[in-house]
Structure formats: C-alpha cells, structure tokens
Amino acid sequence: MDESSSQAYEDEIQALEEEIRQLTEEYEDIRQESTFFSDEAILKAIKSLEGETQGETKGHESLSSLKAELESLERDLSFLTAFTGFHFTSHSKKTLERTKSRTVQKHRVSGKCHSLPFQVEFQLLEMPNNEKVSAVVSDLSIVMESIEDSNMSKFVSSTEERGDLLTFFRSISAYAEWFEHRKRTFLHFK
To answer: Where is coiled-coil annotated (predicted)?
Structure first.
C-alpha cells in the first residue's frame, strides 16, 4: 500500500471518528432533554397532541382548506419580512446544561436585514420563577459583514458588552433601512 492511499484511509477514519463524536453529543442532548420531563408530563402532552390532531382534522374539511391556510401563513410571513426587513436564513440551538432550576442553551442565528448580512451567537439562561420563566442573554457575539461605518462598529461592540439583543435587532433594522437609502442615493450620483 502506498503512502497516499494510507493517508486517505487515515483521513477517512478521522472524519468518521469526528462524525461519531458529533452524533454522540446530539444523542446526549436529546436524552437530556427527554429526561427533563416526567413520564406523566410526556403522556399528558401526547394525549393533548392527539386531541389537537383529531380536532384539526375535523376542523379542516379538505386539502384545499389546508392549502388556503398555508398560503395565508406564507403571505403573513412575507408581510413580516417586508415590514421588518429581517430574513432569517438559519438557526441552531444546542442545550449546554439542563437542570430543574435552570436551562442554558447556545443559539446561533443568521440572516439578513434588508441587504446587511448578520450572524448572532448567544447563550440563553432560562430559570423558572413561579409560573413565569425569566431569561438572561449572555456571551453575545455579533458578526456583521462589511461594517464600513465606525459608529456602527462601536454600537455592535457596546451591544455585545451589554448583552442587549433586543436593542441590536431594533437598531439594525433602522440602520439597514437607511443604509439602503444611502446606497441608492450614492448610486444615483455616480
């Protein structure tokens, strides 16, 4: 066996070992999430879901009514995308810790606001408090391509330090809308 085929086999073995490691982590996450709920809660949720499913099939008399509802939801989504300027392209969530008193999840959201691409990563700490759940954002990291404006880079840095996700989404929406206007204006004068 020559050196190149041996290296190819070793690379393939490493790739398979990495895939096994990732699948094991995913399995552990799913197992942790399923053990968080009691058997009674799971059975109650299944019965509730079965009841809802039966009610939904009775409520939707035909396939055409389902298609009409889907089209309505797509129109609503299209309206919200046009209204806010946000188009989310991906979201991933990984549970880092789950206990009865708290849950820590890592989220990654990617998308565009008007024409500005962004990626936001953060950890969300959720703690049940009586009947409410309080949530705290930490480890906020914002990546935006082509930030040419120094004021915007300062804003992104300060938002990351404070962990203020809501302010970021509110501000990026207004900034991106005016960014589009400025870009069209400059193109007009060129």
So the answer is: 6-83
